[in-house]
Amino acid sequence: MNLIRRRPSALDIFDLDRFDRFIERFFEDTAEDVKVPAVDIREEKDKYVIEAELPGLTEKDVEVKVENNVLTISSKKEETKEESKKGYIRKERKSFSFTRSFSLPENTDVDKITAHFKNGILNIEVPKAPESQPKIIEVKGEK
Hints:
By secondary structure, this protein is mostly beta strands. It is built from two helices and seven strands; from the N terminus they run ααβββββββ. A four-stranded antiparallel sheet has the order 1-2-7-6, with no helix packed on it. It has a three-stranded antiparallel sheet with strand order 3-4-5, with no helix packed on it. The radius of gyration is 29 Å and the shape is elongated. The termini are far apart. The mean pLDDT is 81.
């Protein structure tokens, strides 16, 4: 058996797969820009309550609308940041948007929907229509 001395080339030392993954991650969109807010929905006796977590936004950044019994929460926010020093100018733009839609049950009163925003939480109350509320019928005895 003969041993052959071999000198490693630059390609043997350099991990091409690792380099490819680095390049792919560098050009990927950031995950922050495509997140959808967490939403909790609960039913109460006389209404439905929708709570959406919207950190970093204000009531001016959020739009709530109802069309054809579909409630839609959406936001589009754009920021521009410019910095200049020692002859260099850096200008960055960041945009964020989302849309969430929910089909409302037939027993809702869409004309009385309210929305409140506080501490990054959007709270939407969707009242049930009065005719859909349980009605207690009095049982009378015989005369």
